[in-house]
Structure formats: structure tokens, C-alpha cells
Write the C-alpha cells for this entry.
Amino acid sequence: MRLFVFGLGYVGRAFARRLQAKGWAVAASARRPEDAERLRAAGVEPVALTDSHALTAALKDTQAILVTAAPDAEGCPGLRALVPALARAGAFPDWIGYLSTTGVYGDRRGGWVTEQSRLAAQSLEGARRVGAERDWLEVGHGMGLTVTVFRLPGLYGPGRSALDRLRAGEARRIASPGQVFSRLHVDDAAAGLEASVARPRAGGIYNLCDDEPCPSGEVIAYAAGLLGLPIPPEVPLAEANLSPQGMRFYAESKRVSNARAKAELGWRPAYPSYREGLTAILAGEHSPIQPSSSGQP
């Protein structure tokens, strides 16, 4: 079995490791020579996007494709590169996953959203994701491809969590009354993708997130307790001097339901809240062997 990843980032690496452990071969897009070396070091075959013949050959015998790259002003770069290559190869992979974001829902003032909720992206990035989702689903329908969309919230995991921000002295507790966010451990994201590969559904859309939306300051406080560090004082949002990107983040508040992924994919987050996730990350730092989670029921 073979997986191709367009944009091997944080989630893509976690997903690739899961499938490699089960005997899958993994290839991924590479833009620069240094990218190729990094991929080879991880046991991943690099495929230069500038080499149309190599890309076509890589997709010919591929059973699963994951697209993680963010859309640009012209749409999804993965779609632009992969769809012509799939057509040239005459390939029909069993599964194509597109990673989107819960930002497509916009602000719901703390209310719940499901996959059937109206899309109301408030940022340019969110609007581009809406367009990329639409384009992938239309291509899937038109070409008879099994395309599934995954909407992810903020991700955390080893090397990228509140624990790291606290140690670096960069963690802040922004006070924004009523503000709540959903989040997801990267291993749970990878487990959700793997569950979908086992149960492919053309045109499927899934929210992958944990079970406990909450204010970000709550996560910082818990992480500080785990590390034995003082809890950073709260800073009012109006005084936080956030970047435009940070302000966009705090302009939205919603609770994201993962009920469909649980019901249709049999998926359960191994880390149902930030408490289990952060505790496991800290425990893994003190273990000579990094533990892995199945994310399955």
C-alpha cells in the first residue's frame, strides 16, 4: 500500500508515521533539494513537483492521497498539481483526504457547529478554505474520486503545545470573556485520517476535534501546573497588542462537534481534552521511547 502526501507538514508527518508502522510506503511532494533530503531521512520518497513524469509515476500505484497545503489566491495548489497527474496516470486512488479548517464556520459566539452548519468564514484564509473544499468535492464528483474533507481546529502535540510556550516564556493568558475554542492532539488527527482510509466515503466531511472546547487561558493554566511554573497573569484582549493573525483568532468563538466522525468512522480521540493530551506529552518527554496512541475506540 502506498500513501502520497502533498505538503508533508505537522499532520502529514504524524499520519505518515502511522501508516509506515503498518507497512505502507510513503511519498511526498518536495519543492527544494533540502526538502528532499529531509523527506529521505524520514523514510519518505521525495517527488519533485517540477517533474511531471515523476509525479505521474508516483500517483499511478498510490492507494491514498493526503493534501495538507493551504490554498492561495488561485485555489488549492494540490488540486492544480495532482488532478492533471491523476488523469495522466489513469489513477483512481481509494481515498483522497483534504485538510481544511474549522475557520470555515466563522464566529458562532460560543455556539456549537456541525458539518451541516452554514459556512460563514470571516477571514481571507477561511474563505479560501471554503473555496478549496468546494473545488475538491466538485472534482471528486466529476472524476469519480473518493474525496473526503476534514475540518481541523488548532492542533497541538509534542514540540508544539502550551508546555513549549511556557518554557520559552511566550505563553499568555488572554482574557476574552465567553471565548471558547476547540483543539486537537496531532496524533488524534492522524488517527481520524487513518479511520477514514479504512472507511472511505466519497463527498464525506468530518470535523476532527477533541470533546472539550474551552478558553485558551484554561489550557495555559493547566500546563503551568504540570510544569510547576507560575500561572501567567491574565491580559485583557484590548491590551494584548496581538498581531493581525492573533486578532483574527480571537475574533471567533465556537464549539465544534465531532459526533459525525465518531458515528461514521468509529473514531474516538485518545486525548478527549487538553488535560490528557498535555499530560501525555509531558510523560513522553521523560520516556526513552515516545508512546504512540491508536486513537481508536
